[in-house]
Amino acid sequence: MRMIDLGSQRGPLVHIMDTATAVECGREVRFRRSLRSLVECMVPCCGFQPSESVSTESDSTTITGTFFGYRKGRVSFCLQDDTRSSPLMLLEFAVPTAYLAREMQHGLLRIALECHQDPHKARCSLFHVPVWSMYCNGRKVGFAIRRQMTVSDLAVLKLMQSVSVGAGVLPLPLSSKSDDSDGDLMYLRASFERVVGSSDSESFHMINPIGSSGQELSIFLLRS
User: Which residue ranges does UniProt annotate as crossing the membrane (predicted)?
Assistant: First the structure.
């Protein structure tokens, strides 16, 4: 398994840690290409400092956010109080991991999730909204669906408990290693500043490890 943990870096931002693994040559080449693409597109996002435009009057806390998914599959996004706590929210985005990585190459990624309050239903927490309209940098790209944790999700988060900040590729379960699989299981984890504007609006801004630079990545939850 290969991981990049940025939480304790003192020097260059990216350092790849290797543990012993045996793979055949062709898969190793594909692995290297996938990991390089992930790191080049996604790790620089960890360099985002919270925007000065965020209101200091809003309630602000720091939580853990994790993107994960197969390279050819859809991205999931999980929010936790810390790396070992139960998820506050788990969403599945209607875009593949590769699409999200391409959007990050432009240096600015803003994901807006919008929903409408049903006047005939009680107002729930934003974390419990079942379906969101999803926009990436102003373009509608489909929907984000709240879902329950699966056994696979639990296994992924357990593997990553010791990773505070970083990006990499997780080992595939034996049952998933086939020629028609969706590729490597990629992840990106970072600390996010959570800003609560009201019961109908929250935002999450990726936080920068001190001394590094990078692009802006923010997620907005808006209910009207």
Answer: none
Which of 60, 54, 47 is closest to 188 using CA atoms?
47
Q: Are 49 and 113 in contact (CB under 8 A)?
A: no
Using DSSP's 3-state secondary structure scheme, residue 84 falls into coil
Tell me the CA distances in angstroms from 147 to 17, 78, 136, 150, one per residue in order.
32, 10, 20, 9
CA distance 214 to 47: 4
| Continuous segment of H or E residues that includes residue 189 | strand 185-198
Q: Name which of 45-54, 74-83, 199-208 the model is least confident about.
A: 45-54
Residue 21, Cα to own-chain centre: how many angstroms?
A: 26
Written as one letter, the residue type at 164 is S
Domain residue limits at 34: 2-223
Count of residues making up the chain: 224
First CA to last CA across the chain, in angstroms? Answer: 44
pLDDT score of 13: 40
Q: Could you give the 3-state DSSP secondary structure of residue 132? A: strand
Q: Is residue 64 within 8 Å of 223, Cβ to Cβ? A: no
Please state, in angstroms and rounded to a whole number, the distance separating the CA atoms of residues 193 and 49.
9
Structure tokens belonging to residue 40: 């080049």
Eight-class DSSP state of 176: G
Count CB-CB contacts under 10 A for residue 85: 12
The CA distances from residue 190 to 77, 140, 211, in Å, are: 11, 25, 15
pLDDT tens per residue across span 179-204 = 545 678 889 999 999 999 999 999 99
